[in-house]
Amino acid sequence: MKIKHFLFGRPLSTEALQEERMPKWMALPILSSDALSSVAYGTESILIALVAYGTAARWFSLPVSLVILILLFTLIISYRQVINGYPKGGGAYAVAKENFNPLMALIACAALLVDYTLTVAVSATAGVAAITSAFPNLIPWNVELSVLGVLIVAFINMRGVREAGTVFAFPTYFFIFNIFALLLAGLYQVVVHGIPSTSIPMPAHIPQGVTLYVLLRAFSSGCSALTGVEAISNATPVFRDPTVKNAKTTLLYLGILLFVMFMGITILANLYGVAPSPTGNPTVLSQIASNLFGYSWMYYSTQISTALVLFLATNTAFAGFPLLAAIVAQDGYMPRQFSTRGDRLSLNVGIMVLSLMSILLIIGFDAVTDSLVPLYAIGVFLSFTIAQLGMVKKWRMEKPSGWKSKVFINGLGAIMSFSVVIISLVEKFSAGAWTIAIIIPILVWMMFSIKRHYVSVANQLKMDIDHPLHLKSTLMIVPVGGINQVVRNSIEYALESSPPEQIIAFHVSIDKDEDEKFRGKWQTWNPGIRLETFYSRYRSIKNPLLRFIDQVQRRVDGKYEITVVLPIFITKKTWHRMLHNQAAYFIERALLNREDIIIVKVPFHLKS
Amino acid sequence: MKIKHFLFGRPLSTEALQEERMPKWMALPILSSDALSSVAYGTESILIALVAYGTAARWFSLPVSLVILILLFTLIISYRQVINGYPKGGGAYAVAKENFNPLMALIACAALLVDYTLTVAVSATAGVAAITSAFPNLIPWNVELSVLGVLIVAFINMRGVREAGTVFAFPTYFFIFNIFALLLAGLYQVVVHGIPSTSIPMPAHIPQGVTLYVLLRAFSSGCSALTGVEAISNATPVFRDPTVKNAKTTLLYLGILLFVMFMGITILANLYGVAPSPTGNPTVLSQIASNLFGYSWMYYSTQISTALVLFLATNTAFAGFPLLAAIVAQDGYMPRQFSTRGDRLSLNVGIMVLSLMSILLIIGFDAVTDSLVPLYAIGVFLSFTIAQLGMVKKWRMEKPSGWKSKVFINGLGAIMSFSVVIISLVEKFSAGAWTIAIIIPILVWMMFSIKRHYVSVANQLKMDIDHPLHLKSTLMIVPVGGINQVVRNSIEYALESSPPEQIIAFHVSIDKDEDEKFRGKWQTWNPGIRLETFYSRYRSIKNPLLRFIDQVQRRVDGKYEITVVLPIFITKKTWHRMLHNQAAYFIERALLNREDIIIVKVPFHLKS
Description:
The structure is a homodimer.
Chain A: H1 2-8, H2 24-37, H3 39-50, H4 61-85, H5 92-99, H6 102-134, H7 142-159, H8 165-193, H9 212-222, H10 231-234, H11 243-271, H12 284-293, H13 297-330, H14 348-364, H15 369-372, H16 378-398, H17 403-427, H18 429-461, E1 473-479, H19 485-497, E2 503-509, H20 512-525, E3 530-535, H21 542-556, E4 560-570, H22 583-592, E5 597-605
Parallel strand pairs in A: 1-2, 1-4, 2-3, 4-5
């Protein structure tokens, strides 16, 4: 227990669970690390889809990014309306639950859980890639470093991170600073030295192979950069008053930052003709930074800030997944343990499940960000779609002033989000998206099954208060293995609770001679209780005992409460347990599966 | 249960456990597969020790083998005397137990257990090497095939193999037949075509590097071929009358067979100048066979019979290890479970432990026989030494007619065996023998610890029959999580066993409002029992309950028997269990660690 307290801190009382209100300058970095950090791999994802078709094809990253950024602004406007509609916060699950049947809400929930898991895996591997781009001799430890990163973030979250707010604002600003420095350096180069010779000009005609299909694939890959834009609207209540206004302003700032950073990086990649490395190392961002800064301290600063902000994004998922799981668990669609808060008020089951799943993904995909990206975005945009649809339904029901334009905006958001889902599914089906298409329905089905079970249990446990208590006389069966202190304690307990004529001692011998011998010893001791013995030719103690209990149960036919008193002994040291056959344990397990049998365990504690 | 019976057969009654008496022709192959099969790797082990010093060095395999065979005859004569002394059988453990203190017996036991484990690992890998020498495309599956082989033999032994006696005689005769065919083919070649040009002649002077140290290493490696010669004397009672005479004759036959086969293979290896392959594949025996038979059916027959007899040797260890463990367990020096016979009368714990340990060895040593051999032989010869010393002591105590020559023979056996132990330890210390030098003392220490524990438990459990039963009144504590059917059942049980004023219901709420609410509901129900409630700010249910129990226990100060009645519910499907927090389970575990608390489990079975 001392070790636990040392590692995780002292337990916190429930009263300590209060939301801390934040000013805009602090909420922005904390809530948008996920969205902003995606620019670290967004441009690279687009370039990977184009790289096979020659240098000229890479120019198309510019128009593709532009389309993605148009989509971004549609989403920003839509989500500003979500803030209006749900000032108390509410992700896709809450919106869908209020406006649709549970099916819709659970689809949103499954999509989000999958997405949070992928956020952890993608961000952790991309964060490690930022580090190994700068320090290539760490490349062989990609997987280990990514897993270690996840474990550290999980550990911090299990300790409970509430107090660390200001600390967490720092990496995002550090990252923003570095990216803007990069963009300014690029601007300076162009202004002073002109367009670099490496720059890819707009091709005169579309290069061979660059079909609409290819461009759509590049688009759907790049959409991974938009994940996380919903975070601010989900967390509206953390803003200081005027809450809604502050949240909306912050969301707009996020949109502008994301636009400038993403577009800027794509333009720089084009100016320096950067091609993504087949191994994903060094990253596109690292190549740009080394072109502009050389291997100066500014380069290392860029790489380290990238890694930091990506691990902060991981942390965002570690806040989101357990909280969503807890809410859904309270609604009865996930195992109840997800809603239990640990000593430090953290939702440990959710944290552990998320760590486990994302670590499996990291190991399974060998910590290669680019192979994880095809799975990504589908879940996010599916939840976007459902949230926007929910808003459309809400406006049409409530009909507030100007509801028609509100319906139009959210409807547009829904259509565009759903288009991304469809494009991603089609374009990347064989690259891994099919797994998502299977996992989400399975999760939804599981959640319904869980709910069904909980409802059924509640019905079975329901008790009629007016029904009077029904007391029976107890009949006690005491399996006795020998005549010793443990057995004496058990017999004493039986005699304390029942009259002697309602107690039967039962002995199984696996040796013919022993049977007679035991009867003799019992007679000598004579505790005043009837003894039944059985010679087991098949050497099993459990089976004859169970058969005997069955017989007794049939004979008394519900008129007596049947209780089995198990003498057990508890060893002093754990390894001693291996030295005793666990007969009592197996008997207990078998008895628990039989109806209407009460089990009494009379422990005897060995002193050494 | 049906699957279990299908795989392992129906349970057998204890009466079926009888020794079957065997004629010599059947006992020989069954008891000596271990010894005879060692010729498959014995010569190779010697050659490996010499191969680094040039072709001429390999000639020394001839004198080294001759020395080993002299040792063999000393052992055969010594063990014929063991048969005389222990006509009821008795391995090194039994002999040492009768003639020395337990320490000696336990050293012999530990040595034998280690040796049996190595026999399985060495024989299985050598058996697979015989197969992969003939079918090289199986080489990548060396480890998997060896493990599979061990699992199959383990499975057969768990089914109980008694009835398969005659079947088991076949592979040994098949192997003997093939080796003799090989020797005759070699003889024919020499007689008809003269000494082959590949033959290594006796070198005129000792080649550089071939020191006494090297020759001793070759000798100690070759001694692995002598493992298993003790098997016949251990199993004397299985022979038909006249038991002693038959056993002694069979042992002599074994000695002659082993001599001819081992020496013959070494001579053939020399005639064909065979060098061991660095990877251990193809084996020396396979090289000889392919030289003489070409890749004809006789070659494949030789390889297959070698593999079969080696797996039969594995089977010998699977008979020996569990039986020895069972005997030692009955003496209290090993966990009792080793002496429990399963449904099929097989000693399953021993079989499983042996499989596990040998599989770990196979995996750890990558299924390379030659790297396992340095660990081998030390254990065997240590047990030989102890057995022979025991015989010396026995003759000196009993002084039968001719006891002086008997003492001389067994004394010589002891000295020679002990020399092999020392030579092997010194020569192969760094090659792995050090592990054996560590493991055997650790095993002995563990066995003494186990015995100490059993003696201590027996003393603690001892009961004074004349001491009258001491009955107390029970005080029942019922933790109640809500008002439902499970709780009702528990309260009913409590009321059936104790008067209402001796029952306390205890409720922990993790929510301040809930506390009051629960008290109200309880009042409405009014089961006539006192309710205590507690608001847990740290959300733990277990800790407040345990503290409450401690308080009660302190207050009643041993005047009442304290019983905790745990309402539990049993889910219908196993996966449902994951949907409920296992609070009752953790409470029970904590209670079992507290003294003087009786635990009652009142199960409620969910129907769906």
